[in-house]
Amino acid sequence: MERILQGFERAAGASPAIRFIDVMLRGAGQVMFMDNPLTGLFFVAAIVWGAFAVDAPLVALAGLLALAVATGTALVGGFDRASWRVGLYGYNALLTGLALGTFLAPGAMHFVFVVIAGAFSVVVSEAVGRFLKVHAVPGLTFGFVLTAWLFLLASHGFAGLPAGGLPTAVLPGGATVVASDPLAPGAFLAGVALSISQVFLKDSIIAALLFLAGLAVASLPAALLALAGAVIAVAVAHLAGAESDLVTGGLLGFSPVLTAVALGTVFGKPTPRGLAYAAFGTVVTVIAQAALNAGLAPFGLPALTMPFVLVTWLFLLARPAPAA
């Protein structure tokens, strides 16, 4: 595997076109913090599989188009070359494109929005990164959340851009109560797998396995933490009485998966105390997901990965200083 990566790097060094593809793949991998083109290739394969599995290939096209636009915008626009090289301008755009493809009806204006949003996500990511630099915390996927929310809300003002996939705006009500007994094994495993695939807005167990494989080729601890985060999320959400469809569909687990990886290994160390801190953050993210789902219901907006962003920011700002 190392030889494959080295050979690809040599090819990228000799060809601007291959370098561009390399950066795009790294951007895909950066959705889950991995600066690895092979990881990105697995992720792209999972996205394409997940889109075709539900007969929605235009969703994958929207995500990849936004990724390409953002990668090109950051390069031509003169943004930080080191950040561009490792794909840090691409991951928010990829998620934004997938969100617009998922929640907006397809059409010419839809793809115009995807292009504009992909380019704009670069500006948002850079601005957020500069603002947070003084606090030594990363922007995470806030660039995606802010860009997607802006463009999804704008769809209500344009007749040529129907938002057929957005949630119906309703006042929050009580959840459908579920039993506190453990989920059936099949439903539990499905919830765990879909919690991972829903990071990329995909409802596919095969896609989830590809995402885990992509993580594992770059970082086995990250893959294990993603799996652990999904298990914690499904268990906590179910025991708290969340609606069954949300639990088994992974819709309360994708943000906790990201929190577990971020706090457990990317921005922390997998020591016993570090893992306990990450696990606590993962539990809180489940609660934040339910809270933001309810808080945004009157606006008909999905929470996206904002629960992960909010909780991870707070836990990083509050993390204990290393022992002397």
TrEMBL record:
<comment type="similarity">
    <text>Belongs to the urea transporter family.</text>
</comment>
<keyword id="KW-1003">Cell membrane</keyword>
<dbReference type="InterPro" id="IPR029020">
    <property type="entry name" value="Ammonium/urea_transptr"/>
</dbReference>
<feature type="transmembrane region" description="Helical">
    <location>
        <begin position="274"/>
        <end position="292"/>
    </location>
</feature>
<feature type="transmembrane region" description="Helical">
    <location>
        <begin position="58"/>
        <end position="79"/>
    </location>
</feature>
<feature type="transmembrane region" description="Helical">
    <location>
        <begin position="33"/>
        <end position="52"/>
    </location>
</feature>
<feature type="transmembrane region" description="Helical">
    <location>
        <begin position="208"/>
        <end position="240"/>
    </location>
</feature>
<feature type="transmembrane region" description="Helical">
    <location>
        <begin position="111"/>
        <end position="128"/>
    </location>
</feature>
<dbReference type="InterPro" id="IPR004937">
    <property type="entry name" value="Urea_transporter"/>
</dbReference>
<keyword id="KW-0472">Membrane</keyword>
<keyword id="KW-1133">Transmembrane helix</keyword>
<feature type="transmembrane region" description="Helical">
    <location>
        <begin position="183"/>
        <end position="201"/>
    </location>
</feature>
<keyword id="KW-0812">Transmembrane</keyword>
<dbReference type="Pfam" id="PF03253">
    <property type="entry name" value="UT"/>
</dbReference>
<protein>
    <submittedName>
        <fullName>Urea transporter</fullName>
    </submittedName>
</protein>
<feature type="transmembrane region" description="Helical">
    <location>
        <begin position="298"/>
        <end position="318"/>
    </location>
</feature>
<feature type="transmembrane region" description="Helical">
    <location>
        <begin position="86"/>
        <end position="105"/>
    </location>
</feature>
<feature type="transmembrane region" description="Helical">
    <location>
        <begin position="246"/>
        <end position="267"/>
    </location>
</feature>
<feature type="transmembrane region" description="Helical">
    <location>
        <begin position="140"/>
        <end position="163"/>
    </location>
</feature>
